[in-house]
Design brief:
A hairpin with a 5-residue loop joins strand 9 and strand 10. The protein folds into two domains: 58 residues; 145 residues, Immunoglobulin-like, CATH 2.60.40. The strands form two sheets. Strands 4, 5, 6, 8, 9 and 10 form a six-stranded antiparallel beta sheet that branches. Strands 1, 2, 3 and 7 form a four-stranded antiparallel beta sheet that branches. By secondary structure, the chain is an alpha+beta fold.
Length: 211
């Protein structure tokens, strides 16, 4: 017994050192397990979020739009001129187009904002990014059920007249809400050429978006 006590006394510092290393090892292992579990939890949450988003996209509303000439409206475009004091002439151009909104999704869409802007241009380089606050408001449509189509007449005006090879750019933004309370937006850009043909600006994806 005395030999054992003598050995423990002699090697007490080493035993304490070994015990400390063991505690550090245990502490480090606990940290590693906690980090591993945290990473697994984060990965599971991200996977769950992706599954929820995929489910929402499968069931959400998708408002698709297009512009066309209204067959029931004879006057598609009109140019006017006014003379103000001093003999200065001011020109204006008005255009009447039909906006068609169709819900290609599986649930209703609530259209709460329609905004439009038009301008006479020489090239697309003259076009600028616009916010809804900088555009003319055309009110709202309300709810559109899945597979339903709604038309709206847009009477738009801008300064100037189309001369020579100039064209008229038309930009429309539709803001709506889906059943998941997500705010969505659809925009479309069109051009009226000098021969009065109306076509979409397919080469400008920033003006033709769906969110």
């Amino acid at each position: 017994m005395s030999c054992l006590l003598e050995w423990l006394t002699k090697y007490e510092s080493a035993a304490v050192w070994i015990e400390g290393l063991a505690l550090v090892g245990i502490f480090g292992f606990d940290i590693w397990v906690a980090r591993r579990d945290h990473k697994m939890t984060v990965a599971q949450l991200k996977l769950a979020q992706k599954q929820i988003e995929a489910s929402h996209n499968a069931e959400r509303a998708w408002v698709m739009t297009e512009l066309s000439w209204d067959a029931h409206t004879r006057l598609h475009m009109a140019e006017t001129s006014n003379w103000v004091e001093g003999g200065e002439q001011t020109d204006a151009l008005s255009v009447n187009v039909k906006l068609t909104c169709s819900n290609e999704g599986r649930s209703p869409a609530w259209i709460h904002g329609i905004y439009g802007h038009c301008q006479v241009m020489n090239t697309i380089k003259e076009l600028t990014n616009l916010t809804s606050a900088e555009m003319q408001s055309y009110g709202l449509i309300g709810p559109i059920g899945p597979g339903k189509v709604v038309d709206r007449q847009l009477h738009m005006t801008c300064p100037g007249h189309m001369k020579g090879t100039q064209s008229l750019s038309i930009y429309v933004v539709i803001e709506y809400r889906d059943i998941f309370e997500n705010e969505r937006m659809t925009s479309l850009g069109y051009v009226v050429a000098s021969d009065r043909s109306l076509y979409r600006q397919e080469g400008l994806p920033e003006r033709n978006r769906n969110t």
